[in-house]
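G., the chain you wanted modeled:
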Amino acid sequence: MLAERLRQIMQEEKLFVQELADKSEIPMETLKNILYGKVKDPKSSTLLQLSKALDYSMNYLLGEHFYTKEEQDLLVNYRQCGVHGKGMISVIAKFEANAAKEERNSERKQTIPCLVPNSNLEDGIEYNSGDTIQIKTDKEKAYLAIEITTNNFAPAYCKGDRILLENRFPVSGERAVFANGVRMFFRAFEEDGKQYRLRNLNGRGNDFVIKRMDEFQCIGTCIGVVRS
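Predicted structure as tokens:
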């Protein structure tokens, strides 16, 4: 039921797997295993992440229904309506639900600075290059964003996407923005024995192999993306 309910919500919300993975901060492989039914009993922490990201209760995601007296009365009245009445109720319910969801999202959002570079992240951008704008996000830990200005990272990131960054060093497998001198690079961080590798994405840009973490300054770790 969880996999079926997730696919239903993703279709209604027009969410791709990568978007839900970024939004819920659940590894892509774990999310795919849930959607394909390989994981039938995920951890409660995973369910909680999905619940917060999708704004649905954990009970709803698991296919359970708990109706209040008011909800039961509405359901009885709905079933007694004709085709026209049911259609009107459905239209109004969808409109009001979307409006309520937008209001909740707006209340949760904070404003953070977003760097819009005038060069490519794979080649490295300078701190003072481009413009800085303000954007809103509901990611509480996000403190900075950087806009993708090319399609070189597609399909993971497309032109206009804004990477949300948390102020911490990444763990192996996470993507982050690193600085060397005055230039910043978007790379995947990997532990490689006694060395560390900042791996390019989609073959764009050079890999960097370092022996100490302090050779590069971490500007922030990717915790989500705002689609344009």
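The mean pLDDT is 86.

Shout if anything looks off.
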